Amino acid sequence: MLVKTASLETLSELNEQLKADFSTSFSDLTSQQINWKPHPNAWSIAQCAEHLIKTNDLYMERLEEVLDGKYQPRLLENVPGMTKLASSLLYWGMTTTKKLKTPTAFVPSASAVSPSVLDDFYKQHSKMKLMMQRTIPLQAENKTFTSPASPLFVFKLLDIFRISTLHTQRHYQQALKVKNNPRFSS
User: Fold this and answer.
1) Which helix (H) or strand (E) holds 146?
2) Which of 19, 67, 85, 101 has the fewest CB atoms within 10 Å, counting from its CB?
3) pLDDT at 116 over 60
4) pLDDT value at 55 more than 70
5) What is the dihedral of CA 31, 123, 57, 13, to 10 degrees?
6) Which of the two residues, 21 and 157, has the higher pLDDT score?
7) Residue 37 — φ and ψ, nearest 5°?
8) CA atoms within 13 A of residue 141's CA, in its CB half-sphere
9) In the predicted structure, residue 30 carries a pLDDT above the cut 70
């Protein structure tokens, strides 16, 4: 499945599957296990989940404004090609094998993360699914908004959901690598 061209309905299904994959893979782990890191500079399973929550929370606040009709368009949203440029950069960022620097606003806690982070992640994914459903009548492939992370990034609503799905897939794979590390304590 090519997420880059997926419909909202398909993205909703993919996100439900990712939520189930997280649950199947990590819900039975102890607090110590979800906070275990293969080395000091690596992220734990809990930090991957917390990072996704922080990132999605920021975007979901902006999406909520759009869905409630309270969003005020920004200047760059009318510049031709801005959505294509921003989306292309983020699609690349979600699919590259290179390690990328995380913007400060999205960096997870440096210390142990509460085991409830997985439940928070599942709740957020349920809310995201509802947002996707609410977005269907808005013609998400045409509606734009400015990123809450940077005023230079303008996206179409549909692309934000696609990028969020890719982002979740990326960090699910990262968390799986932690769990599958030979030194991971079972």
Assistant:
1) strand 144-146
2) 101
3) yes
4) yes
5) 120
6) 21
7) -125, 140
8) 6
9) yes
User: CA end-to-end span of the chain, whole Å?
Assistant: 32
Tokens found for residue 141: 């492939």
pLDDT of residue 186: 54
pTM for the whole thing?
A: 0.88
> Is 154 in a helix, a strand, or coil?
strand
Amino acid at 40: P
Q: Which amino acid is present at 41?
A: N
Find residue 156's DSSP bridge partners.
Answer: 144
Alpha helices in 27-81 (DSSP H): 31-34, 45-67
Dihedral, 123, 136, 3, 17 alpha carbons, nearest 10: 30
Dihedral angle computed from the Cα positions of residues 111, 177, 174 and 129, in that order, rounded to the nearest 10 degrees: -100
- pLDDT given at position 104: 76
Tokens of 12: 């909703």
Distance CA 53, CA 124 (A): 7
